[in-house]
Predict the structure.
Amino acid sequence: MRYSVIGMGNAIVDVISHVPDEFVDTHHLDRGAMRLIDAEEATRLYAAMPPGIESSGGSAANTIAGIASLGGRVSYIGKVRNDQLGEVFAHDIRAAGVDYQVTPGDDGDPTARCLIAVTPDAQRTMNTFLGISRNLSPSDVDEDLVASGDLLYCEGYLWDVDVAKEAITKGMDIAHRAGNRTALALSDGFCVERHRAEFLDLVEHRVDVLFANEVEITSLYEVDTFDEALQHVAGHCEIACLTRSEKGSVIVTRDEVHVIDAHPVERVVDTTGAGDLYAAGFLHGLAEGFDLGTCGRLGSLAAAEVISHLGARPEVRLADLATPLLG
Amino acid sequence: MRYSVIGMGNAIVDVISHVPDEFVDTHHLDRGAMRLIDAEEATRLYAAMPPGIESSGGSAANTIAGIASLGGRVSYIGKVRNDQLGEVFAHDIRAAGVDYQVTPGDDGDPTARCLIAVTPDAQRTMNTFLGISRNLSPSDVDEDLVASGDLLYCEGYLWDVDVAKEAITKGMDIAHRAGNRTALALSDGFCVERHRAEFLDLVEHRVDVLFANEVEITSLYEVDTFDEALQHVAGHCEIACLTRSEKGSVIVTRDEVHVIDAHPVERVVDTTGAGDLYAAGFLHGLAEGFDLGTCGRLGSLAAAEVISHLGARPEVRLADLATPLLG
């Protein structure tokens, strides 16, 4: 059995609650931002939050679910505990059509969660407890599984933990030895700040397809303008996909540049997952052998679907949406 | 005496009047569009219009005035009559710092004018009578003058008249024989429709620097998306500058692509002249030896100034605005 894409990332369940405005200040949260929290704060904050809804998330997991929705054969590597949120995560990702073989841990930290407090102004304040997902290690990277995927896709967030870093490196080396391709999403501007030198090295030596938004790519090369970053990234890896929200995206190789418009959206409800789903569309197009322009338009289409509703996974079958584009 | 840029185009004076809404229907005008009218209709319409203001325009003339405002040494070739509007045009372009040596015609059609009816919704309905500007002929193209400009810039609108077409061809050939460069603005989507085959040939064989907006460039190559046009134009001429309104611009050569953001504007008042002034900034940057990214940013800056007020020529010295950018 071969996969088109295998994803690797933090397996996270989002817990979304509507909170009154003063909740953010009372609990000293970073309004509108994403912040890592520890077990103790996660427990305390979760107890204080009003009843919420759970939905499976995690950046690379969203991407992989998106590729499945487009009709691709995909697998995901990310760690959960044998607890209730772990069951939610595993159920959702399998229900999305993703092959998920990782054995849940039976001790240590619980399943990762992102506690999202939505204030009356519709702003999301995110508090992520990484839990057991931090323990993703080289031993979780099954050599046969990774070798069986045409492409291995990793999220940059993993780079925050040394053992997960080794897991990425091992995975990418397996992929390349097997003649497959690798992809990396830079994930977050702060993440790039923390690991700039290592990311530059990774992009040059181990990454074939890079995903980055404007903040991330200008931070990576420490330049002021998008165009300067564009000049740096050309040829630094095989393909770079630079996403720019409503300005669309730019795809760069050593020999080609494609400028792709954002897909029209009637009303932007929640931008969470836009980058994840862009990567889904692009990678699915690449796996299916479409030209880079079409891959980019498929990315824009998938991103447009996910920002038109709450939550970071598609609500309709993306394969149906993509039919007019792919003919 | 050498010039950095010599411009060639229709020398037009804009006549702007505020009209009541029903004026557009009563006089059978094309609301919001640009339409060519004949002498008889021009006389009739001008008589019917309320008192207005005159301001010198013409696409290439606006560009040349913009380069002068940036500090470049420029000259302009375009035909006026020895009438009142001809005096207005010559006065304004000289007052803008442009060398203008063309002798006014003393018979035939009067000076070209664009009768602009502004309705209460701030929309501009344009009615252009080309008058004597249509008579621009090879004999108006002074060989010594054209040879003395590092670049000859022509507007596509000229291509509508056979004798002006010969004038462009003669000018471009003189420029190339003298080792100078040539530039063409496609001017208008309808203009491209009318002359597609000839424009394709011109771009391939005689044009070094091409300016086109999204409608024009997709029409030129008869493609649906901006990205497809981008792939066609790469290498078709030395440098292509593709402007995209609020999406900024893309500069394409055989080996380089630059993606340039629009310069921020507090309030867009009137977009007339945006493309003309982008060309001014870009060409001035090119003449001064700046890299293509900086040329593009200079184009965005000049376009931003002109759309922040009524009228198609800069209201402040662009050289001052450009100082922070050029250091």
About this structure: Chain A has a mean pLDDT of 93. The longest strand of chain A covers residues 12-18.
